[in-house]
Fold this protein.
Amino acid sequence: MTLAIATDRLTKDYGARRVVDGLNLRVPTGCVYGFLGRNGAGKSTTIKMLLGMVRPTFGRVELLGHDLAALPPSVRERIAYLAEGQPLYGWMTVAEASRFARAFHPGRWDGRKLDQILDHFEIPGRAKVRRLSNGQRANVALALAIAPDPDLLILDDPTLGLDTVARHDFLLSLIHLVQREGRTILFSSHILADVERVADRIGVLVDGVLRVDCPTDRFKEAVSRVVLEFPGKPPAFPGCAGLVQAWEVGRRLELVVVDFGDDQRRVVESLAPLSWDAASMSLEDAFVAYTRGPRRSLPVFDDGPPEAPSTATSADRGAA
Amino acid sequence: MVPTLVRKELRETLAFVAPALALYLVYVGHLTGMARPLARALAGLLPGLSGMPPDLPFIQGDFNSTLLYIGAALGIALGFRQSAWEPSQRTALYLLHLPLPRRTIVLTKLLTGVGLLLACTLTPIGLYGLWAATPRTHPGPFEWSMTGDALRVWAVLPLVYLGAFASGLRPARWFGSRLLPLAAVALPATAAAVVPWWWSVGLPILALATAALTVFILREAETRDY
Amino acid sequence: MQYEISGASRLPIYRQLVEQVREGIARGDLKPQDQLPSVRQMSRDLVVNPNTVARAYTELEREGLVANRPGRGVFVAEPRADLTKDARRKRLIETIDRLLTEAVNLGFSEEEVARLVAARSRQFHWNTPNSAPK
């Protein structure tokens, strides 16, 4: 398995604040990677470090097998980058913007594909970039980014500020992109349903640390909510492997657990509740529960077998 | 690729260059008597536009200071427009990802800016000089060597531009310390413009300060966060 | 046959697709030899990653519900005869038990459940009576 993106202990401090902490991000070639995290978790800073726009305090980045610090222009040309808000020069017309971009990719430019996309979204070439709607601008920026047929695309929150229809269109463009074999995409997003549709793998950044890095389905299947009913005030939960959060609601005890299995079942049954039930959650609920948990002790996901969660968090419990 | 970048910089700085050039032309029009009514109408705009033009071109009158004020204003405007604007609009993230070395991109900006500034400020010197060199246009004598001081101002202006560029590029906690590079060029710029020994002292000071600022700008562009 | 996926669902997308195809076969919306949309087509129609669709098809193939004919596409398989009647019966009983457990927990009476099952089963496409388990 070759890696399109590999970082080694990537770290960024702003003053005394550590924004990204020892990130070892590994994105295999051909993968669509959804990069998640709450606002301020360090997603944008990480993406900027991947492209050399922010200088890491420590650590290194490799893109398409080349060290970022010595990335030759011929490799940079194979990497497309859409920064947050899809910045383009507002004073240019769409046609001027595409002529401008084409000048930097001689020999790789696929003008036909670009025109197809612009036609499809009915964006006239003489429209000023400044006057485009958010959705149109996002599609123009994506079309310009893919015209040189990149092998790696890095998109920083590409659907931010788009309405439902524009988001759908944008995702469809992404799906078209994925259909070319061997193309790697990393994108950050706030909209979990989009991520689930498009991403093969997800990474969740919590306070600058990569807490989850696994196939999308696995994350969804692994995080469960367990509800225990008691006749009176519930007893304190003794903790179990994979516990993210535990809190009391009246006579109920609610838990969020990663990889709920036989061990956890025994702990639950030892409390002798009236009844109990474990259910998986939607990606959005799983993400919310997971990123709200006690931060220092979140169980770290990886590709490991479900019966061997990597971190035990016996003593930590969320606030009631 | 570089010509495309140059065209983009020219287009983006047009809004500053055009008014500066227009002011220069009105001023020269006033000095040469070719656009006196227009100059009189705009007298409030520039101090040099009132009163009678001097008999001795360049030596008498306020040509050099007018050249300096407009030129310095243009240099500062260009410097900030070409450095601070793109990071503030995030287009820097687009620009710097183009498959060109970052050094090439920044040097293209600098050379375009310096070129524009020099061309724009040379225009009034050239036009005024040509007029003065034409016989029977004015009572006094004229030698091209009389443009010496004006040319010194002209040569020093790029330093002001580089100072502004460096200020615009350098992220700083507060505005005052951000202006540090621009304030720092005042000393070498003044020295280069006024010390009597141009070739042995003025020019070397100018060259050294220019080189130092260029190195600073390239390093800052390479290491700062966008 | 219309497919749709929901982000609010607790099931992963590939499972949602698997369930819909299964249900389509059981209701008779999909008949043996019917062709399913290609991975490419399905991925565009639903706006989901093609790998997810491929995973669903692999899963369905593993269960013997569809057959992949390389170069031609994915087709609904003939009803399976590879499991013995006993094995099929055992599998169905497991599912019925799960259903009954849920019904008891939700507080339904036996008659209510029987009525519901009868009503729902009218919406499905059944094999001929003599092939049903005795």
Observations:
- Chain B has one domain: 2-223.
- The two ends of chain B are 22 Å apart (CA to CA).
